[in-house]
Amino acid sequence: MINILALGLVLALALGMLAQRIKLSPLVGYLLAGMLAAQPWWGFEEPPHHVMHEFAQIGEVLLLFGVGLHFHFKDLLSVRKVAIPGSLMCMTLWTGCGALVYHLLIPGADWVAALLFGMCVCVSSTVVLTRVLEDSKLLHTPSGHTAVGWLVMEDIFTIVLLVLLPAVFIMPEGGTRAVFCIDDLWGALWGMTWKLCLMVFCVAFLGKHVISRVLTFVARSNSNELFTLSVLTCALGIAVLATEVFNASMVFGAFLSGMVVGQSKFASRAAGDALPMRDAFAVLFFVSVGMGFDLPMLLEYWPLALGTLGLTLLFKPLSAYGVIRLLKRPGSLGVVVGTSLSQIGEFSFILAALAAGPSFGLLPPAAVNVITGVAIITITVNVACFRFVPALIRKMEDRGIGLPSADNSAIPSPTEDKDRVIVVGYGPCGNIITGILQEHNLEVIVLEMNIDTITRLQQQGIHAMHGDARLHTILRLAGAEHAKAIIITAAGAPAAEISAAARDVNPKIAVLAHTTYMRNAQAMRHAGAQIVISGEEEVALTLSSMLLRGLGATEEQIQRARAQNREKLTGTPGDILTNIL
């Protein structure tokens, strides 16, 4: 066992690093490592995937425990208007199409296996989605939040399926394939419902009155080893409890225990201690999946593999884009969400392995093998192609494709009695600036990428429109040709590109930008921003002013020192804005 474990880890490390170097997901390397480890030339007497499967089960439990740690209903509720209806529509559509593809391409296939195959195909990988969004710096954007909320709905769907399978399918004595309990379906569903409700109540009670106190007691010992052990005990203990007492799946119990710990005051520490273990066992999980892959079998069933590949890489992103546009959301959101979901991963493996396992036997090994092969290809293609998504969005919006249907009457025509100012971004900084400008009778137009924020602002009577401020068409619609100034309020916004675009539309416009670091300010000034406010600079000047005031300096002396130091730091005189305007 130790030899097999060492071999799997060594191959996973080498191939994972190779995949990382060539800009692919390490998951591809882990799956390939499993394929190599399963070859007969290593001389193992026992088939290695049977041993690795035991480690993979621990990986599944810790994987779902990690999902539960970071699962918050508020994250889903914040994007509920798109993520909930969009994911439900798309999962239904993808499941039906996957079942149809399976039924047409597998001779004599029954509809139970076809539907289970479709359900496996409709679920995307949590690891891949968060990784590609983070690498593209889209994870913490409105589009990234929507994609994550969409994935949360898929996770809930998968967990419900994992719970439902034992309730509605029973393996007859001496049989090889479970049968549907049609005679006592409602009785089985009722029994499953009350057992799960009792289990949720017990876990919630344990979490509030037992687990939290145990973790508090262990934390006071100041022993990192004991705290890590207690977190691992919670994950595995509740998972086993779910199986032995409530006849639920272990992964569902692990998910619940993760939610309980995640809502406690120890959530951050538990994540820091447990997630490295989760990642280590998750590697073994993917290696185990790769060990079960059979290339000759995939080639034998190449029509199903090709159909599934087309469904995953083409139909899933296109249909997600169409559904998001149907919900009257911008095309940029549809491109990000659709592209990020054009792959299948760990939850597909878990569901397929359960359906094909000895407890049910509902899916043939060929179907599981096709899912594994398609997962390897789609993960590779998805990670490689997602880097082109921002450029694709800009090209689409430059041509007017996928822009929201804007109400032109919402943006008034420029007037002579009011100066127009465009505010890019409506975070806390944009909110304050907008209020101050309106108090001084300036006409403010807000450009924001969050469509829900736009709706809220318009309801409040604030002129706002959705769009990327780097695009000339959006700036013209906002009236930049006649605006006095444009203020870039978000420190993370692409200020250099916005500045250049604004100066192209209106060479006389004053560009004011906000950045966190002084090292970025000079690049923004070269791009056309006349005033760049750096957080580091303002903190230094404010702290020094407070010190001088405490030492007895007059306000005139303090203001003169601020002006001199600002000009020294930025090369910009204090009255430059007056000259520009």
Write the layout of secondary structure elements.
Layout: H1 2-21, H2 26-37, H3 48-69, H4 73-78, H5 80-105, H6 111-121, H7 126-135, H8 142-168, E1 169-170, E2 179-180, H9 185-219, H10 224-244, H11 250-262, H12 267-291, H13 295-300, H14 302-326, H15 331-340, H16 346-356, H17 365-385, H18 389-398, E3 420-424, H19 428-439, E4 443-448, H20 451-459, E5 464-466, H21 472-477, E6 485-488, H22 495-505, E7 510-515, H23 518-526, E8 531-534, H24 535-550, H25 555-570, H26 576-580
Parallel strand pairs: 3-4, 3-6, 4-5, 6-7, 7-8
Antiparallel strand pairs: 1-2
Helix pairs in contact: 1-2, 2-12, 2-17, 3-10, 3-11, 3-12, 5-6, 5-8, 5-14, 6-16, 7-8, 8-9, 8-15, 8-16, 9-10, 9-11, 10-11, 14-15, 14-17, 15-18, 16-17, 24-25
Structural overview:
This protein is mainly alpha-helical and 581 residues long. It has 26 helices and eight strands. It has helices at 2-21, 26-37, 48-69, 73-78, 80-105, 111-121, 126-135, 142-168, 185-219, 224-244, 250-262, 267-291, 295-300, 302-326, 331-340, 346-356, 365-385, 389-398, 428-439, 451-459, 472-477, 495-505, 518-526, 535-550, 555-570, 576-580; strands spanning 169-170, 179-180, 420-424, 443-448, 464-466, 485-488, 510-515, 531-534. Helix 3 (48-69) runs antiparallel to helix 12 and helix 24 runs antiparallel to helix 25.
Annotation keywords:
581 residues, two-stranded antiparallel sheet, globular, 26 helices, mainly alpha
- The strand order across the widest sheet is 5-4-3-6-7-8
| Unreliable stretches | none
Number of strands: 8
The profile of the biggest β sheet is: 6 strands, parallel
Alpha-beta classification: mainly alpha
Oligomer: single chain
Spatial gap, N to C terminus: 75 Å
Figure out the total of helices.
26
Shape, please?
A: globular
The amount of beta strand, in percent, is 5-15%
The percent of residues in helical segments reads: 55-70%
Overall mean confidence score, pLDDT: 79
